[in-house]
TrEMBL record:
Xref: Pfam families: adh_short
Protein name as it appears in the record: 3-dehydrosphinganine reductase
Superkingdom of origin organism: Eukaryota
Lineage: Eukaryota, Viridiplantae, Streptophyta, Embryophyta, Tracheophyta
GO-annotated biological processes: 3-keto-sphinganine metabolic process; sphingolipid biosynthetic process
Any one cellular-component term (Gene Ontology): endoplasmic reticulum membrane
GO molecular function: 3-dehydrosphinganine reductase activity; nucleotide binding
CDD domains hit by this protein: KDSR-like_SDR_c
Main location class: endoplasmic reticulum
Keyword Membrane tagged: yes
Subcellular location: Endoplasmic reticulum
Length: 327
């Protein structure tokens, strides 16, 4: 009995020491990013998650600019925000693949406090069925386009003085945390954002700029509805295990995460488990989350192995059935 009590005491001392050590070492420190009366610039802000983020930011008192290609969709977005909040937003028509056009829009919009790089395209297909143009399109819009937006906004964001902490947030995807069948190009474009974000955070932390990576699950946006009609059956089966969410809920969680200055923002428990399993060298500002990562890293790896095993079983079963039908 005495031995058990001593062991328990050592365990408690270990946990408390670990918490203290983590509280001392986690970097970069979490900061609050104010939204009210600040300039929030959202790419892909005319539809889906971007539009819902624009609605929320306006409702919370921010001055909002949105950028996308279609002027019709931008006008419609402006009208819907005006109708809901009685506040106007600035709209900019540009393709993120065109650096000069993006730079012009960013310059015209004025100094940015919170940059949300949200534009994205997804065409779910097995790689052997995908054209080179489709692969290039996704990499160009999702990854190179994100570089274009950040590189256009960064000089003025770094030069801002006395405006408080700033944020550069990138909308990734759960397909940017785990490779998913049918998403070779899309996953690659979103995994790329992880490297961009980690390195960028080190480069801009001394300018009080905080990088956030957002990982939404399937979300009921116009883009998702379109993509769902054409995505491979297996992609739908595998993605179904994570469930889908409403655009408004996702936008709220994302904006709250940005305001809390978190590096990683996930939208539900599966995304959270994935974030722990794939934490690697990601910065972590919260010692509580760092504690969970340290304590349960092995366990989440086990969960991820179980999930992978289910996915491969589904693929094996599906291909056996297909082969059976063909022969
Ligand atoms: N919906 C989901 O299930 C889901 C899940 C995880 C992650 N995500 C990510 O969340 C982000 C938003 O997705 P969503 O579902 O809200 O998409 P969406 O409804 O299709 O909206 C996409 C937005 O991006 C703009 N856009 C697309 N290509 C562009 C380009 N080349 N230059 C400038 N703007 C461009 C679109 O406007 P124009 O077409 O007029 O340019 C639109 O405003 C994307 O990064 C996506 O990868 C979505």
């Amino acid at each position: 009995m005495a031995a058990i009590s001593t062991l328990f005491l050592f365990f408690i001392i270990f946990l408390v020491s670990l918490l203290i050590i983590l509280a001392l070492i986690v970097r970069p420190r979490s900061v609050k990013i104010p939204i009210k009366s600040r300039h929030v610039f959202i790419t892909g802000g005319s539809s889906g998650i971007g539009l819902a983020l624009a609605h929320r930011a306006v409702a919370e008192g921010a001055r909002v600019s949105i950028l996308a290609r279609s002027t019709e969709k931008l006008d419609e977005a402006r009208r819907s925000i005006q109708l809901a909040t009685c506040v106007g937003v600035a709209t900019f028509s540009a393709d993120v693949r065109d650096f000069d056009a993006v730079s012009k829009a960013v310059d015209e919009s004025g100094p940015i406090d919170v940059l949300i790089v949200n534009q994205g395209v997804f065409i779910g297909k097995e790689l052997e069925k995908q054209s080179h143009e489709e692969v290039k399109f996704m990499i160009d819009v999702n990854l190179v386009g994100s570089f274009n937006v950040i590189m256009a906004a960064l000089p003025a964001m770094k030069a801002r003085e006395g405006r408080g902490p700033a944020s550069i947030s990138l909308v990734s995807s759960q397909a940017g945390q785990a490779g998913i069948y049918g998403y070779t190009a899309y996953s690659a474009s979103k995994f790329g954002l992880q490297g961009l974000a980690q390195a960028l955070q080190q480069e801009v932390i001394s300018d009080d700029i905080h990088v956030t990576l957002l990982f939404p699950p399937d979300t009921d946006t116009p883009g998702y509805e379109e993509e769902q009609k054409k995505r491979p059956e297996l992609t739908s089966i595998i993605a179904a295990s994570s469930g889908s969410m409403k655009t408004k809920e996702v936008a709220k969680i994302c904006l709250d995460g940005i305001k809390a200055g978190k590096f990683t923002v996930t939208c539900h428990y599966i995304g959270f488990l994935l974030s722990i399993a794939s934490a690697g060298m990601s910065p972590q500002g919260s010692f509580w989350v760092a504690f969970i990562e340290v304590m349960f890293g092995g366990l989440t790896r086990l969960v991820s192995l179980v999930v992978q095993s289910q996915w491969y079983k589904t693929i094996e079963k599906w291909s056996t059935t297909k082969k059976g039908i063909r022969s």
